[in-house]
Write a structure and sequence with these properties.
InterPro entries: Tscrpt_reg_Rrf2, WH-like_DNA-bd_sf, WH_DNA-bd_sf, WHTH_HrcA_DNA-bd. The chain has two domains: 77 residues, Winged helix-like DNA-binding domain superfamily/Winged helix DNA-binding domain (Arc Repressor Mutant, subunit A, Orthogonal Bundle), CATH 1.10.10.10; 81 residues. Helices cover 25% and strands 29% of the residues.
């Protein structure tokens, strides 16, 4: 499939549809997406029409209807199918977040420890995460890496939390879960 250029608004709405669909495993109502992205339900309906035309979503009619992402949606968002993915634990302010899974960890500025940052790409909604919150990621399956950091920012359209790293260790032995 050729690369589809989505507007930031379309990308944000599509990402939230994917997040909500993963949680419910059923059709997602436009009102639920609107609530998560802080938009009017009419705006969501209009955007869904253009996303349908791009074959990124399909409409499900009926009382339990709504929208479902197509396989093209995952490709457009560059989201991997995580059905058989290893579980990478995530804690938010010390509390486990079972509805999120870490898809990718990107370390930036590692040459300057005082400026070391990590970008954590999640599968799951990032709407409940805010600047200043503490995040613990890991240990990862192979390297047993654990990162503890403070949220410095977030990219809603790409589902990425940007952390200032407070502590990073590998390998980490048995960590209390």
């Amino acid at each position: 499939m050729s690369s589809i250029e989505l507007t930031p608004s379309q990308k944000n709405i599509l990402q939230e549809l994917v997040n909500l669909h993963r949680q419910s495993e059923s059709a997602v109502k436009g009102e639920d997406i609107a609530e998560q992205v802080d938009r009017n339900p009419g705006t969501i309906r209009n955007q869904m029409q253009s996303l349908k035309a791009l074959q990124l979503v399909e409409g499900v009619p009926g009382p339990k209807g709504g929208y479902k992402p197509t396989s093209n949606a995952y490709e457009a968002l560059q989201v991997q199918n995580m059905d058989d993915a290893a579980d990478v634990p995530l804690k938010h302010n010390g509390e486990a977040v079972p509805s999120a899974n870490v898809e990718e960890i990107d370390l930036t500025s590692v040459h300057h420890p005082e400026e070391c940052r990590a970008e954590i790409k999640l599968q799951g909604s990032i709407s409940e995460f805010h600047e200043g919150d503490t995040i613990t990621v890991g240990p990862t399956p192979l390297s047993k890496l654990r990162i503890i950091g403070t949220i410095e920012g977030k990219d809603d359209t790409s589902n990425i939390l940007i952390l200032t790293i407070d502590d990073m260790k590998a390998p980490v032995g048995d960590v209390e879960k």
